[in-house]
Amino acid sequence: MTIKQLSLLIAGCLFGNAVISADLNDEFFQQKFAKADYAPAGAQTCSQCHEDAMQGFLSSIHGNKTLEGTPASGIACEACHGPLGMHAEDPQANPMLRLGAMELANASAKLQNQMCLRCHGDQFPLETTPCAACHTGIHTDNAIPDTQKQSLACLECHPQLQKQVRMKFTHGLVDDKGSNIQQGCSSYCHAAHGSKWAPAYQTPALNAPCFECHIDKQGPFKQEHTGFKGNCTKCHDPHGTEDAHLLRPNIEKVCAECHGEQPVLEHASSEQVHGHN
Q1: CA–CA separation, 272 vs 277, rounded Å?
Q2: Where is the Doubled CXXCH motif domain (predicted)?
């Protein structure tokens, strides 16, 4: 396949016959891909000004020429950042596609993600959130190299949890100083790329992530607590609470749904609540 043919294929995958939003510079990049003015020297041209980025790229899976389908096995930098065109002559007037969080990028989240989905089509990113907002190190071996950064990325868009994960009792997301994120939200319970099951659970079995650690609560038991079987998070909040058992602040109201106003929780054992033999 020639570079011209590849460009037309990319343009077709990116834009098709759909009308693309003119947010930021989407229209500019649409025209740029259609023009297909790629650099004859390819990545060698880019490395003259972007040596650091090129070094990271070459050490990453994206930069592995031996793997079929990687950018390096094709047109390298231009596969993600668009045709070079007149960029080398006048970078300001002729920008390349810059991927990242919206405050850093120069194209909409939709257009950015369409670039990623050409190769990662089995993923389901949010329409308003660029892949590169979380996968910040795409020029390295691992875009999110550890679970601390993974969870910090989640908290950037879920500020309502910032305080909660630093409450007196948490689910291991932070250390005893309330600062170091220790576990990855998407690795343990949620699917960062989207899910059929709200709120972005990894599995339709809502309690499955809980039972990976709390196998003694799974049962089946001879004496089942019917209120418990549906969803652990009905009573517990895994993100953190002021209760040592991670009970929700409104737990008495939860119990009252079946037990009325009678105070049952203070007299109940863990076995009675979760089921027992």
Answers
A1: 10
A2: 225-262
- Coil, strand or helix at 31: helix
Tokens 């990271």 correspond to: 56
Sign of the torsion angle spanned by Cα atoms 105, 107, 108, 109: negative
Place of tokens 């060698």: 44
State the Cα–Cα distance between residues 112 and 108, nearest whole angstrom.
6
pLDDT at 52: 87
Measured CA to CA, the distance from residue 97 to residue 83 in angstroms comes to: 9
Q: How far apart are CA 226 and CA 117, in angstroms?
A: 43
Residue 177 scores a pLDDT above 80: no
Pairwise CA distance, residues 165 & 153, whole Å: 14
**In the numeric block, which tokens belong to residue 142?**
């691992």
Amino acid at 73: S
**Could you please report the per-residue DSSP string of 80-100?**
HH---TTTTT-TTTSPPP--S
pLDDT band per the 50, 70, 90 thresholds, residue 20: very low
Kindly state the tokens that stand for 83: 């045709």
With a CB cutoff of 8 Å and minimum separation 6, the contacts of 105 are 24, 98, 99, 112, 130, 132
Q: Are 108 and 24 in contact (CB under 8 A)?
A: yes
Burial of 113 (0-12, 13-18, 19+ CB in 10 A): buried
Count of other CB atoms within 10 angstroms of residue 234:
14
pTM score of the predicted model: 0.65
H runs (alpha helix) in the chain: 3-15, 26-35, 43-47, 51-58, 77-81, 109-117, 131-134, 147-157, 185-188, 208-211, 251-259, 270-274
**Distance (Å, whole) CA 72 – CA 81:** 13
